[in-house]
Amino acid sequence: MFSPASARAASSYRKASVDGASPYQLINILFERTLQSVRSARLSIQQGDVDGKCQHIGMAVRYIEEGLKLGLNPDRNDDLANRLSSLYDYCVRQLTLGNLRSDETPVAEVQQLVEQIAEGWRGIANEAQQVRAMPSLSVGA
To answer: Pfam families of this UniProt entry (predicted)?
Structure first.
């Protein structure tokens, strides 16, 4: 599929994009990669590619468990963190079910859920950037 040189170049590019990313961008990258894995898993199920299905679902589960879920900060908003943690657990269960049954339906549900969460996250990130870009007002100047 890829030559060793092009695979190394792609890996270096991905590493550079992650190394220079803000916390908001890192979470966005995790959402993008999760969704990419879920879409690839759905395609593998449609094509009857068992190895591809297992690989892509495994990657999606890792992005959720080791990235999105571990990135939650209950100190900032305990209720939101708990709700998202429960939703991520549900997504992992649905991905596992889709993998066991080679059923696209639960995998499609996860795609829809993650897309909605990612959309909300992008809104939060955009608002945070706007706040940071606002000039500070000095009192008494």
So the answer is: FliS
In a domain, 57, yes or no: yes
Decide if 62 is inside a domain.
yes
Residue 73 belongs to some domain of the structure: yes
Phi, psi of 85 (to 5 degrees): -60, -45
Rounded CA separation 128/94 (Å): 32
Q: How many structural domains comprise the chain?
A: 1
Tokens of 139: 């009192």
Within a domain: residue 5?
no
- pTM comes to 0.78
pLDDT at 75: 87
Domain span holding position 95: 21-114
